[in-house]
């Protein structure tokens, strides 16, 4: 097991390395960049005093050097000093911009994932056991609606309904009065009152999909001989379900960790923009639009790394629950 | 001879599947008796209701199947502390709640089953040991460690090499024959009064099959358990069973001891079945030419149809016109312990 984990982690290093190169190339691809544009604008308006400052940045990040040197400088700064560069849009370091927002992003992504699993697991098992019952049809319909309605539309509907019907303004993560205050218990409670909306909205799409997956795999497993054998042992029906078919049907659930994290991280951006959340997604999206290269590059790098970490976690968990993965044999029964 | 020695008595059992296409009368009025410590063989063509009979006994008939009527009397012994003789009480399994506490306490404990397709009887993601000890701790008041001991003992009894190590193995690490032994051990570890074996050796090669059959007989003697052995292999029946029930389309058409079955079979279906097994002597007398196997004429009728009269009459070479296709034959006892369901033998 330990050797499997070590091997798996070692395999991740070249992955992340490749991602970083790709991220760097992608942000260099479009012609022009924020800095030259900014310099041009400054020159035209005849302001010179900032230019000294900007020349300092150019030197510091090697913007006048060849590409590979720029890359090396960029990546060594990140790896050794956690310095992601400077964002010209915000006039701050990228780390500052991301750090203040990343916490919320991760919290929302994590809780959306938890929400998805907690809701989809029991419902998926239930509708498989009660195949073709009214409950099955009900959740199937609900699931298709959940799959078909895009998150941002759902967000807008929620905002509209809660404002027109209840006079409550949904959006942001804090009420106006807490926005600029330091952390306190009251502010935390206020956060809880707001954060569930993006969690549920982001979770619903994934939940609908996972219910379908769970139902399908459970139906497959329920037909297997070992379920009948388990019943013939005299186990109660609940124990039969949890110890046998669910043990295998859980595998696709674990695999979802691989894509759920990055999906919530990047796929949630549109919803977050609509809901006006102080999360990383919208800021990074704006960076991409404005060719704010260090911020945009960091965005691609971080999402890519999250994908790699997600699949690492799900691979390790899969190996924990399924010995066939551990022994490298999927021949199975 | 009956009385105390009876373990299970099935009377007029009917198990139907209500499908949108119609009703499948998988078991349609079966009478069977299993005696303590004896082996009852059940033979018949594929689809005649052997497995459904066994599943009905354990109350594990999958929906939309249902027991429509009949009795499954289980004469169970209640061993009382101090009492020198065990008391017997009768319980009708057909009346129990299929997933109720009482039925579950019998399942896997006093009646256990080895299923068709033993290869997939174990879930691949749990160790063999955990799947065996589970049934022990469920029915016996023992600790996890004691259960492991019992399981290891039982694996040794079924002659699994390195039983203790096998406990921590996963099913895919064992060979087919080893898995089959583990499955049998799992069914035996609560020392059941009745073991239902539903073609437990179909997936195995002949040598392994012979070993497993020997093993089952040996353990049967040691534990004094009864076996209900389901198969379409008459050779295996000859080796294993004392009494044999021949089933056709959900009904028992002939019930007799194994000697009589092979020496003087009465029902036309039984005789046809016996003719359809390849015989070594045939091959020899024909001078090495491949013997032509006799097959039973006609097709098994589709399972939804309800035939008037005897269900075998469309295929029967000896049918009596205007009788067999109109009147359902009753069961006649032609000799003690030998009964046939056929008009040819019904007393006028
Ligand atoms: N789950 C089910 N749903 C519908 N019909 C079923 C089901 N299980 C069995 N049957 C029907 O019941 C009848 C008897 O089936 P059963 O499995 O008992 O046959 P069998 O004698 O065990 O045959 P085999 O030797 O092939 O195992 C068949 O006609 C079959 O189609
Ligand atoms: Mg069968």
Explain this structure.
The complex is a heterodimer of chains A (333) and B (348). Chain A is mainly alpha-helical and 333 residues long. Helix content of chain A is 77%, strand content 1%. Chain A has helices at 2-28, 34-44, 49-60, 67-81, 94-129, 134-148, 151-166, 185-222, 225-232, 237-243, 245-267, 269-274, 280-289, 293-321, 323-326, and strands spanning 86-87, 92-93. Chain A has a two-stranded antiparallel ribbon. The longest helix of chain A has 38 residues, at 185-222. The two termini of chain A are 22 Å apart. Chain B has a domain at 1-100 and 233-348: P-loop containing nucleotide triphosphate hydrolases (Rossmann fold), CATH 3.40.50.300. In chain B, α3 (128-139) crosses α4, α3 (128-139) packs parallel to α6 and α4 packs across α6. The longest helix of chain B has 18 residues, at 206-223. The two termini of chain B are 28 Å apart. The radius of gyration of chain B is 21 Å and the shape is globular. With 348 residues, chain B is α/β, with parallel strands linked by helices. An eight-stranded mixed β-sheet of chain B has the order 6-7-8-3-9-10-12-11, with helices on both faces. At the A-B interface, α9 of A face α2 and α3 of B. Bound molecules: adenosine-5'-triphosphate (ATP) and magnesium ion. Adenosine-5'-triphosphate (ATP) binds at residues 17, 19, 24, 26, 44, 46-52, 62, 65, 116, 232, 303 of chain B.
């Amino acid at each position: 097991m330990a050797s499997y984990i070590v091997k798996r982690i070692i395999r991740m290093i070249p992955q992340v390395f490749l991602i970083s190169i790709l991220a760097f190339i992608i942000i260099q691809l479009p012609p022009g960049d924020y800095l030259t544009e900014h310099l041009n604008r400054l020159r035209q308006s005849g302001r010179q005093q900032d230019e000294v400052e900007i020349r300092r940045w150019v030197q510091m990040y090697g913007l006048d050097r060849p590409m590979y040197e720029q890359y090396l400088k960029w990546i060594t700064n990140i790896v050794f000093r956690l310095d992601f560069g400077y964002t010209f849009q915000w006039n701050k370091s990228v780390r500052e911009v991301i750090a203040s927002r990343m916490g919320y992003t991760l919290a929302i992504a994590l809780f959306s994932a938890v929400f998805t699993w907690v809701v989809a697991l029991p419902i998926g098992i239930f509708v498989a056991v009660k195949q073709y019952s009214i409950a099955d049809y009900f959740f199937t319909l609900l699931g298709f609606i959940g799959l078909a309605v895009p998150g941002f539309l759902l967000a807008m509907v929620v905002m509209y309904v809660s404002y027109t019907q209840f006079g409550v303004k949904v959006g942001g993560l804090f009420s106006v009065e807490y926005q600029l205050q330091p952390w306190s218990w009251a502010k935390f409670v206020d956060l809880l009152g707001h954060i569930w909306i993006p969690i549920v909205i982001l979770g619903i799409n994934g939940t609908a999909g996972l219910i379908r997956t769970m139902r399908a795999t459970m139906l497959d497993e329920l037909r297997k001989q070992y379920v009948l054998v388990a019943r013939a042992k005299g186990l109660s029906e609940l124990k039969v379900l949890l110890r046998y078919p669910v043990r295998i049907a859980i595998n696709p659930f674990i695999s979802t960790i691989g894509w759920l994290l990055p999906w919530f991280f990047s796929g949630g951006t549109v919803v977050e923009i609509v809901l006006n959340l102080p999360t990383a997604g919208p800021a990074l999206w704006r960076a991409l639009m404005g060719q704010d290269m260090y911020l945009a590059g960091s965005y691609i790098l971080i999402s890519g790394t999250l994908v790699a970490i997600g699949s690492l976690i799900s691979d390790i968990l899969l190996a924990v629950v399924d010995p066939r993965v551990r022994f490298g044999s999927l021949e199975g029964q | 001879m009956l009385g105390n020695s009876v373990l299970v008595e099935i009377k007029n059992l009917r198990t139907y599947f209500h499908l949108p296409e119609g009703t499948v009368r998988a078991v349609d009025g079966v009478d069977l008796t299993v005696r303590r410590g004896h082996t009852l063989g059940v033979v018949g063509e594929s689809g005649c209701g052997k497995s459904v009979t066994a599943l009905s006994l354990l109350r594990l008939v999958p929906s939309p199947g249902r027991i429509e009527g009949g009795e499954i009397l289980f004469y169970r012994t209640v061993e009382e502390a101090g009492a020198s003789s065990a008391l017997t009480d009768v319980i009708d399994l057909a009346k129990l709640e299929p997933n109720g506490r009482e039925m579950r306490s019998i399942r896997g404990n006093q009646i256990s089953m080895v299923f068709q397709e033993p290869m997939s009887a174990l879930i691949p993601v749990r160790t063999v040991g955990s799947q065996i000890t589970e049934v022990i701790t469920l029915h016996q008041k023992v600790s996890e460690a004691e259960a492991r001991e019992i399981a290891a003992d039982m694996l040794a009894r079924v002659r699994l090499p390195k039983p203790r190590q096998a406990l921590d193995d996963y099913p895919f690490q064992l060979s087919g024959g080893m898995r089959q032994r583990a499955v049998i051990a799992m069914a035996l570890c609560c020392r059941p009064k009745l073991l239902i074996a539903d073609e437990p050796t179909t997936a195995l090669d002949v040598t392994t099959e012979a070993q497993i059959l020997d093993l089952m007989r040996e353990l049967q003697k040691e534990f004094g358990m009864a076996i209900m052995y389901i198969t379409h292999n008459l050779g295996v029946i000859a080796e294993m069973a004392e009494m044999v029930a021949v089933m056709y389309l959900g009904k028992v058409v002939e019930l007799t001891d194994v000697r009589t079955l092979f020496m003087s079979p009465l029902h036309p279906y039984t005789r046809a079945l016996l003719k359809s097994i390849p015989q070594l002597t045939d091959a020899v007398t024909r001078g090495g030419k491949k013997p032509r196997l006799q097959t039973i004429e006609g097709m098994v009728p589709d399972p939804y149809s309800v035939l008037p009269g005897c269900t075998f009459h469309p295929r029967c070479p000896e049918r009596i016109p205007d009788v067999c296709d109109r009147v359902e034959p009753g069961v006649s006892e032609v000799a003690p312990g030998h009964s046939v369901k056929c008009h040819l033998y019904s007393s006028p």
